[in-house]
Automatic annotation (TrEMBL):
Its EC number is 3.1.1.31. It comes from the Bacteria. This is 6-phosphogluconolactonase. The keyword Ribosomal protein does not apply. PANTHER family: 6-PHOSPHOGLUCONOLACTONASE. SUPFAM superfamilies: NagB/RpiA/CoA transferase-like. GO terms for biological process: carbohydrate metabolic process; pentose-phosphate shunt. The keyword Ion transport does not apply. One of its GO terms (molecular function) is 6-phosphogluconolactonase activity. CDD domains: 6PGL. It comes from Shewanella violacea (strain JCM 10179 / CIP 106290 / LMG 19151 / DSS12). It is an enzyme of class 3 (hydrolase). Keywords: Hydrolase. Belongs to the glucosamine/galactosamine-6-phosphate isomerase family. 6-phosphogluconolactonase subfamily.
Length: 232
């Protein structure tokens, strides 16, 4: 059993979202105050929508905040499957509309071909990243580290910041930040909601193999602080 991460439990998702948005905004502004800029890595999926909306209203010097994605589906940016579209619709609004968003999807026809250009997009981001917000799937994936993909070992071992992934169990080829990129951060949050995800999270703590339970690559490490925010 690993115990490196901090587990915060909330009775309802609204309380979780309010506290997490407050904490992220504070950390971003502290980064701007201390180092002149901040970086925020966010995930797609359905879980973070309300969190994005709350964050977009926070008082942060957003024009000094660089934002990118933990992973992206290789679809057009106006597709409903696009994580960039999700971020543009819910996060880059209100006070946050001045943030410097750098997407991972580009004009290349596959994530394999687009990988180098996506890495270039990260050149201005502070190293380490200030805040990373991850989600988790019911198969234990985070980012696009799918246990079913042939690229899983590469995603968890490459020194490169991005990796192309072709998941067998989920639609669309993807481009994902690698484990190396994600762990090069000051703070990681894992944002999960519901009993099913709580049980997957518990399984990940017990399962010794990160290739079959990739979220473990984030949970079972001592380098970067991870706070797990869970609500029923
Ligand atoms: O683009 C994506 O799909 C992701 O970034 C992915 O890692 C996501 O965070 C989980 O699959 C959880 O997704 P839900 O929030 O929809 O459960």
């Amino acid at each position: 059993m690993i115990k490196e991460s901090v587990f915060k439990s909330f009775d309802d998702k609204t309380a979780l979202e309010n506290q997490l948005a407050e904490r992220i905004a504070k950390q971003l502004q502290e980064a701007v105050d201390t180092r002149g800029q901040a970086s925020l890595i966010v995930s797609g999926g359905s879980t973070p929508v309300k969190l994005f909306q709350l964050l977009s209203h926070k008082n942060v010097e957003w024009s000094e905040v660089y934002i990118t994605l933990a992973d992206e589906r290789w679809v057009d940016n106006d597709s409903d499957a696009s994580n960039e579209k999700l971020v543009r619709t819910h996060l880059l609004q209100n006070k946050a509309h001045t943030a410097k968003f750098r997407g991972l999807k580009n004009m290349f026809s596959s994530p394999e071909e687009g990988c180098a250009m996506a890495i270039e997009q990260l050149a201005n981001f502070s190293n380490p990243f200030d805040v990373v917000v991850l989600g988790m799937g019911n198969d234990g994936h985070t980012c696009s580290w799918f246990p079913c993909s042939k690229e899983i070992e590469e995603a968890l071992s490459t020194e490169k910041l991005c990796v192309a992934v072709n998941p067998g169990s989920a639609p669309n080829p993807r481009l994902s930040l690698s484990k190396t990129a994600i762990l090069a951060s000051r703070q990681i949050y894992l944002h999960i909601v519901g009993e099913k995800k709580l049980s997957v999270y518990r399984q990940a703590l017990e399962n010794e193999d990160a290739n079959t339970m990739p979220i473990r690559a984030v949970l079972a490490q001592h380098k970067t602080p991870v706070d797990v925010y869970w609500s029923a």
